[in-house]
Write a structure and sequence with these properties.
2 domains; 4 helices; nucleus; G10 protein
Length: 148
């Protein structure tokens, strides 16, 4: 989460930010802890999983506040997206049918995979073999198909 700057040309946050500021600070502290955590014994791709998961949680929190519970105003929501408190591209995908549970954008990018397909975590559990464990290599997700 970006630090709040107090420059003269910077707009102050809209009304209602004080209500969610504590939760956003908790997410910021979790992010700092995840970045400072030891990486010994982890594979190269596993080091970024906590960062992806915290970013997803923070974005989902803001998405739920605006779209599900209508607890924040449109100007506050726009300000949060503009100041990178949430991932605007991920939230845009959540609004589309079939992507309601999407964990990260890397899971739907086909160019980064061997077979030009989406990630294994996007496959519905009903189509997988029984007792088959699925974990995304990009973010550590264990399944984000909307039909699950």
């Amino acid at each position: 989460m970006p630090a709040i700057r107090t420059a003269k040309n910077r707009k102050p946050p809209p009304d209602g930010f004080e209500d969610i500021e504590d939760t956003l600070l908790e997410f910021e502290n979790k992010m700092k802890d995840a970045q400072a955590a030891s990486h010994e014994g982890k594979k190269k791709h596993e080091m970024l999983w906590p960062v992806f998961q915290i970013t997803h949680q923070r974005s989902r929190y803001i998405y739920d506040l605006y779209y599900t519970t209508s607890a924040i105003s449109k100007p506050l929501y726009d300000w949060l997206l503009k100041n990178s408190y949430a991932d605007a591209n991920l939230i845009a995908k959540w609004k589309k049918q079939g992507y309601e549970k999407l964990c990260c954008l890397r899971c739907i990018q086909t160019k980064e995979t061997n077979f030009n397909s989406t990630c294994i975590c996007r496959v519905p559990r009903a189509q997988l073999k029984e007792d088959q464990e699925v974990q995304c290599v990009s973010c550590g997700c264990r399944g984000c198909a909307s039909s699950d």
